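User: quick one, fold this
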Amino acid sequence: MGKIVLSINVSVDGFADHTVAVAPDDEMHDFFRSLLDETDLALFGRATYELMAHAWPQVEADPSARRGMYDFAVRFNAIPKMVFSKTLDRADWNNTTLSRGDIVEQVLELKRKPGMVVSVGGIRIAQELMRRGLIDEYWLVVHPVVCGSGRRLFDNETARSSLRLLDTRTFRSGAVVLHYQAVGA
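Assistant:
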């Protein structure tokens, strides 16, 4: 059986949009790269896909990029990706497939593949999969910042879930990684 994994940056007050994190250092990039080393496919919605597809190929092409950032970019650009969108005409980022299908049906199909590890990127997709109880593991990187506004990862429509803490890690920056498994996953 495959598993669906969400790894995302979150502020102390629960916001998870791209304004949350302070500039990540090599330690944080190395951490996220290590998660990609265990990932078979990354899923995105259109907005997150466009943000990532714009940034990471440029980092890999930049000889002055910091080591951790560069290593992350190389790995991220190489892995297979799928973007769910009804509005994109094409997906040009390396190893990316455009899907117009139902995300829940496709995720259920991916979960049936033995050993398949699927990473979820983006709040909307994550929320949809959480509502359906399809996220198996959470890597929440809680940054020492209070945003006060933004997009929340866990909203009023998120299905109630029980999580079991598997591990924690603290970065020099003060960010804390909370690794959870969904109970029953």
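User: anything notable?
Assistant: The chain is about 30% helix and 25% strand.
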